[in-house]
Amino acid sequence: MTLHTSSESLVDLKYQGRRRLLKQLAAIGIGSSMPWAAASAASAAQRQTPSDPWKRAAEIITKLSVPFRFREADYPITRYGAKTCELQKVQAWSSFEDQGVLQTPAASSFDCYAAIRNAIETCHREGGGRVLIPAGDWFCAGPIVLLSNVNVHLQAGAHVYFSHQPDDYAKYGDVDCGKNGKLSISRWQSNDCLNYSPMIYAIGQENIALTGEDWTAVLDGQGGVPFNEFGDCWWTWKGKLKTLNAIAQSSVPNYRPGKPSENAVNSLNAQTLKEVAPQISPELQALIQGNDDKWRADASYLPALSEAGVPLPQRVFGKGHFLRPPMIQFIGCRKVLMEGYEVRNTPFWQHHPVNCQHVVIRRVHAKSHGPNSDGFDPEACDHVLVDGCTFDSGDDCIAIKAGKNLDTQYGPSRDIVIQNCTMQSGHGAVTLGSEMAGGIEHVYAQNLLFENVHWQTNPLNTAIRLKTNLNRGGYLKHFYVRNIKIPNGVQTSPSFYTSLPGSPIASKTVATAAGAIVTFDCDYTPVSDNVRIRPPVVEDVHISNVRVGNVKTAKGEYSCYQAIVILGPVASDYNGRAPMPEVLPVRDVTITDCDFGTPAAGTQAMYLYNVKGLKLRNVKIGKEMITREYSA
Fold this sequence. Notes:
This is Glycoside hydrolase family 28 protein. By secondary structure, the protein is mostly beta strands. It has six helices and 39 strands.
C-alpha cells in the first residue's frame, strides 16, 4: 500500500495528538482507524501513583506480558520471488574510528524489496499472519513497511542486508517531494519532517511485530559500508564531533572538514526564516537564527523550522540533505512487539517508536558502534516494556524521548519499565532526554547489569543519565531505579561540557558528558541551541541498591571519575523576553543503599549545582559511608 502525493497536499499534517494523527492519515489513505479513545481512557484511569511505586511497575509488566496474537498463516518471502544473494568482502567502518573487512551483498544481488512488500501486503489483506524470512543472506534496497496484524519473522540464520545507498530510501515513500525524492513522514531527533524512510517502518498500524528466532537472525543497516568512490558512508554524514575528551569516539568515519554533513551549512536551506515562515516577527527570527549561519545546517535547520511554526509539509529533507534515518521507526502505532533478533551497524538510532501505545522490546541484541547509534529510543510512548535485551551502542543504550522545540503534540513518555537488560558500551546506560519537551514520567528501571566489558577501549560513559536544558525544557518526574550492578565501573576520566559566555559554570570544568555513575545534566550542550526560553523541571527521582566495582587503570583502581554529578538548570542561559520564568532546582532526589566504588577525582567525588534536598542514605563512596542531605 503506497500513496504518492505532493507535500503541499498534506496541509494539516502538523498533527495534534494520537487520534488526530490517525484521522489525518486516514484522510490521505495511510493507515487505518484504531481504538485510541478506549486505550487512552484506560491509561488515564491508572495515572494515580500508588504509595508503592513498584506496584505500578508490576501492573505495567502484567499488562504488557499478554502474548501478541497473529493469525496462524505463513507467507514466506520466497513465495513472492525473493532470492538469496552472494556476498563479497569490503573494507568498511565498524565504529567511529575502526575499520575492518565486512561482508556485503555483491553488486549483482537480487533486490528483495518488492517480494517482501508483496508478502506483507498479501498477509495484511488476508487477515494477518507471519511473513517469514528464511535462513540465508538477503539484500533489500528499500524499506520493510509493516502493516496491521503482520509479524515479520526472521528464522535462525536469516541475515537481511539493507542497501547502504541513501537514494534507495527516497524511492518508495508516501509523499512525492520532487527532486528530494518520495519521502516518508518521520521524526528526526524529536522533530517532525519528511525524510529518507527508516529501513523498517510503520505508521498508524495496530498489532505489528518484528521478531527473530535467535541472534543469528540479523537486520544489518550497513551504516559503515562506503556508498561512493570517496569512501563515504551513512556515518560520515554525522560531521564534526563536539564531545571533549571522548574515548574511542574522537572522529567520524571518513569525515574531513569541508565534506557535507548534518552540521555543515546546506545551501539548499533558506537563507532567512522569513522565506519559509513569513509570519514570524523580526525578534523571533533573530532569536532562532542566532548571530551566524550555522542554523542553516540540516541538524539545526529542522529544529529552527519547528521553532518558527513551519508545518510538516514544508519540512522537506531527503535527497540533497544529510539527516540519517533511524533503522527501525514506528509512528502512531498500537501493540508493537520487537523480539529475538540482532540489529547491527545502523545509520542512526536503532529503534525509535514514536507516539505508540503498548510497546514491548524483548531479547533483542542492539549492536551498533557508529555515531548516534542509540539502542532504543521510545518517544512520547505510553506503556513500554524493555525486557532481557543487550545493548552495545555508539550512543545511549536506552534514551527516553518526548519531543523537541514546538513538536510536543504527542505529549509525554510514561509508564515505562526497563528490566533484566545488559548494557556494554554507550554514552548512558539508562538515559532520559535530551529531547523531552513533552515530559517524561513514571519510568522504572530494575535488575540491570551495566557490564561495560569494553571498559579499557570503549567504556560506558555514565550509568544513569538525565539530559535537558533551557531549550529542551519539559519535565522529568517519578523516576525509580533499583538493583543495578556495574562490575567494571564507567569511564574513569572526565569528558567536560562547554558553557555559554556569562555562565557561572566555567567551561571544561564539569564532567557531564562522561565520568560519573549518576549524571543529571540540566545544561546539556547549551552552545548548540539559539533558543533558550523553557526551563526544565526535574523532581521525584529515587535510586537504590547500585553496586559499582573498580577496575585497574594506569593511575590506580577506580570505578568512575566522580560518583554523582548533578548540574541543575543554569538561569543565566535564558535569552527570552522578560520576565524570565522561574528556574527551579533539581528537587526530591534520594539515593540509598549504594556502593559507588572509588572515584578517580578523590575528594571531589560529587559535583552539585542548583540542587535542593538531595538525600543520600547509606551511600558508600570510596571508604566513606554517607547519610546526609545536600543543597547547592
